[in-house]
Amino acid sequence: MDRQAIASKSELEHILLDEGAEPKALPLSLLEHITSSFSADKEIGDGGFARVYKGVLDNGTVAVKKLFGTVDLDEKKFSEEVRCLMKAKHKNIVRFLGYCSDTQGEMVDCEGKLVLADVRKRLLCFEYLPKGSLDKQITGRMTWHIFSQASIYLLFSDQGLKYLKYQTNFLFSRFVDASCGLEWSKRYQIISGICDGLYYLHQNHIVHLDLKPANILLHDNMMPKIADFGLSRCFDEKQSQTITSNMLGTIGYLAPEFYARRQITFKLDIYSLGMVIIEILTGEKGYADIDNVLERWRSRLDKSQEDKQLVQVRVCTEIAIECTDFNPAKRPDAHHIIDRLGATRNADEFATETEANSSSSVPKLAAVSPGPTICPENAMDNELKKSTEELFSMTDQIQCFSSMPDDSSNVQLDTGIRETTSDVEEALIIGRTEEKQKIVATLSESITPEVTILPIYGFGGIGKTTLAQLVFNDSQFAGYSRVWVYVSQNFDLNKIGNSIISQLSEESHVTEKQMIHNHLRKLLAGKKILIVLDDVWEKNPDTLKSLKAMLRLGADSMVKIIVTTRDEAIAREICHTVEPYKLETLTDKFCWKILKQKTAFKNRVDKKQLKHIGREIATKCGGVALAAQSLGYTLNGKTSDEWESVRDNYIWTVPTPEDPSSKNHEVQASLLLSYHHMPECLKMCFSYCAIFPKGHNIVKCDLIHQWIALGFIEPSTIFDTMQLGEKYVTQLLGMSFLQYSKTPSVSFYIIRLLLLFNLTYVNSHSLHIL
């Protein structure tokens, strides 16, 4: 360290000990030193704006948040952020210790040449809380449920006993106390602390904008501290404040009015607070019955304080309900919430009054849903709703589901749902011939030596992977060695390097970075190679620069690289010598062709009657192949009335977390309509798939056996349960709800877009389609 860093280190250690000390500007060299140059082993988390590292001092530990270079934050905005953080000094707010805004000269890639450029580095330093975040502490029941299933499946080899035990544990777990885990006094302490912290922020004109359990950290004594002000804004609420279109938040915690008006008010945080309290009370998101909350807690409370604690449970539940009212004007402010909680802390006489006033008039928590509410059509819908709520809530907590042994399973929650391959049946692809020819020509005509990188970008479901598959298999590259790498959100340079090595040689599992580079240098040298990097999410310019450097290792080589991504900024960051290719939507004509293909339209006797309806449905698909494919399969064999029902359904106009005018809206609407038209038993089977973690390789026969064991499939007079299970799998594949993996005869993956759709609508919004 230089002298400035040494002096600043002593100053930071003093700030860490003295809670009254003011945050200071910190040199980049110090933050690099205490995080071992931001090494991977010091990384403790990341989000949409930054990556967080553990910084080690002589007298303690700090958390260093390194903002991504892609964050749209000029010096004025960064100063505003620091000003907000410096204002926030409260026992229930994570302590802000210091900041860094430093410019360094770095060699960067500019139009194929390395040039020296000034690169701004921005970092924030906070106290480190080893207990972690609240979401890890309030999920007892769901974790037990998954553990019981995994244990049973692995421990019992006899099929009959296995399925009997499996079903018994599943049914029993439905009655396990939802509030297991932290005792009530701790949960009440956490709720009170969060409310105190939020009240303090609002008093200081700070709106958090992303309040959720993952952004609430816990001290050793379980004191909650609100963290992550990456979205926070300081303002006077009397002023009109409009959120920019790229504002991030978390679906399920953002208030419904945000989607309609995108305006900042303190009531946005109040809604999020209500959703957080619901999770603390129940371990679940959007729990629907206050009476069950009370009953589940009654058996677990300290008998000597049961009356007072039951009142606290009831009052906290009532507060949660009021906070999540659809009408922002009816939500209480933080001061009112603090007063109500304060009245329950010691006043035992409050119990009698509260019970009398609220026993017959407490509303149901179903009103928290931030969109139109679906009314169940029958008893099966009620059961399905309960099951899907339970199953989807598990998805957020489980780190690994091992009930189906598969070495390819990925236990990381942020990896891609669907692994892609280079395989494609070109004869079935409609509407992408012209785009394929353009990309093939661009790659072939490039006169740049060594490496050509062509990014393809566009929103999810538009067909980027399909287009890359078409180019990959084109005869123009017959003389090339070809490599297909599925990247996903879990970006790992070593994994990418290993994948390339294993496809170009018999080597695999090279662990050392230098060894990976040595292998690539030999394998790429003097070769003609086509590489596809599919589904790239990584935004960090430094990481992308390292990726490009790794791909340029081969001397005298001719390497053509296609990168697919949803993000234009990533496409422009990674492009090397050619302009990124924006994949546009299909025409309505092509969507109609896809619909006709999937509905077996030419074999229908009522073609003339359906033609006009079908064209209108094709228009509603918004030019997205995935939407047309899903609806086409769903409409196969349906009556003209059912076609009209799909065409005229109001779901096409229901706002989504995305801009309703965006093409993602059409994709989600089409998938939701397909879901609605499923038989009830198929809905149950598909809902069950949500328990698998992202990236898990689902083995088909094992999944069908589990459906049978859980009673989701009952034999018919024609088919036995196994045959019906096969039919269900085929239907889900046809509707694009599931996607084949590399070995279609054995396993498949749940696609990312669909899981998002289900978590957003089936679970959180429970839309009713008439």
UniProtKB/TrEMBL annotation:
Q: Provide the catalytic activity annotation.
A: L-threonyl-[protein] + ATP = O-phospho-L-threonyl-[protein] + ADP + H(+); L-seryl-[protein] + ATP = O-phospho-L-seryl-[protein] + ADP + H(+)
Keyword ATP-binding annotated? yes
EC main group: transferase
- Write down the EC number: 2.7.11.1
Is Kinase among this UniProt entry's keywords?
Answer: yes
Identify the residues that the record assigns to the Protein kinase domain, covering every copy: 38-351
Q: Which InterPro entries match?
A: Apaf_helical, Kinase-like_dom_sf, NB-ARC, P-loop_NTPase, Prot_kinase_dom, Protein_kinase_ATP_BS, Ser/Thr_kinase_AS, WH-like_DNA-bd_sf
| Region span, Disordered | 353-373
Q: Where does ATP bind?
A: 66
Write down the Pfam families for this protein, in alphabetical order: NB-ARC, Pkinase, WHD_DRP
Print the keywords alphabetically.
Answer: ATP-binding, Kinase, Nucleotide-binding, Plant defense, Repeat, Serine/threonine-protein kinase, Transferase
What are this entry's molecular-function GO terms? ADP binding; ATP binding; protein serine/threonine kinase activity
Query: What PROSITE patterns has UniProt attached to this entry?
Result: PROTEIN_KINASE_ATP, PROTEIN_KINASE_DOM, PROTEIN_KINASE_ST
Query: What PANTHER family does its record include?
Result: C2 CALCIUM/LIPID-BINDING PLANT PHOSPHORIBOSYLTRANSFERASE FAMILY PROTEIN, PROTEIN KINASE DOMAIN-CONTAINING PROTEIN
What is the name attached to this protein's record?
A: non-specific serine/threonine protein kinase
Say which species the protein is native to: Aegilops tauschii subsp. strangulata (Goatgrass)
